[in-house]
Amino acid sequence: MKPADPSVPPVRRLGLADVPHCLDLAQDRSWPREERKWRLLLENGEGFGIDAPDGRGLAGTAVLTRYGTTAAAVGMMLVASRYGGRGLGRRLLEHVLAEAGDATVFLCATEYGRPLYEKLGFETVGVVEARVGRFHAGDGPYGEADPGRNATRLAEPGRDLAALCALDVKVFGADRSRLLARLFAFAEQVRVAERDGEITGYGAAWRSGDRLFVGPVVAEDDATVRTLVTGLARGADVRIRLDLHRRHEELVSWFDGHGLARSSTTSFMVHGGRPLPGDRSRLVASFMSALG
Ligand SMILES: CC(C)(COP(=O)(O)OP(=O)(O)OC[C@H]1O[C@@H](n2cnc3c(N)ncnc32)[C@H](O)[C@@H]1OP(=O)(O)O)[C@@H](O)C(=O)NCCC(=O)NCCS
């Protein structure tokens, strides 16, 4: 571990005024310029950054998203390529971990980030596959035409938010209600699956850049996943991306067969290897990787 470089400014909180610099930093690391995503993350969570000593925007960023007091996700860990390998990533991550306090902290790590996370005590507990492509609904029975047991419908915040949050907290194991309330404005579509008047799953589709992201997806079984994803992705005029938690082996071939091929994988890591709360077997797709 190198001593802190005194020429590098301290970590500071980021606000919405920093979004243009966040986009420049993302671009520097060949990440897309996703303004809507940064805005959601900075409005809902806490962004931290280090100003570039050369005065050219930000040298590094990280976003902490708290789920109640018990869990938190780290995302958007970025250090400008010209400042890489100088301890900024470590400094940002240590800062964010200190801010998170006693919460169980998790993240999705790229191969570039994993060595840093391992050094700071994160352990890999799962794999997330980015599934990308044009969705082919096929002629299967999973669309809205199916009035059967797995029918889905558009969710309405007034009618569904409370039940959706009640299901989500059992699965995610921590309180995402603040984020889920925002989901209705952020997403193009939120759908719920219902059986006997009870919500058994939900999913959302939202746009960023030239893609339609499908996530989060929470569902009690594979049939419900297929119905929700078909309802969300059918007819999309752009490529879809869905971040699938790989424990759902049976779904992999279904996604392959419907045009959503594996494009990359990330490691799902938990600080200190702590057990994750909730019933993650029903958490099929992340909202986005930065949100854990
Ligand atoms: C990942 C990233 C944030 C690391 O930032 P950084 O400022 O270069 O990292 P640091 O210099 O603070 O390195 C921290 C430690 O991790 C180690 N480390 C970092 N990258 C490493 C690598 N690729 N291989 C091995 N060790 C590595 C360093 O040796 C250092 O160890 P030390 O503190 O014991 O000396 C930066 O490379 C980046 O922005 N990458 C592109 C975007 C990305 O993939 N982000 C991660 C998203 S999950």
UniProtKB/TrEMBL annotation:
Q: Which Gene3D superfamilies match?
A: 3.40.630.30, 3.40.630.90
Provide the N-acetyltransferase domain boundaries. 9-149
Superkingdom of source = Bacteria
* Top EC class of this enzyme: transferase
EC number assigned by the record: 2.3.1.-
Identify the keywords attached in UniProt to this record, alphabetized: Acyltransferase, Transferase
Gene Ontology molecular function: acyltransferase activity
Q: What is this protein called?
A: GNAT family N-acetyltransferase
Could you tell me which species this protein originates from? Microbispora hainanensis
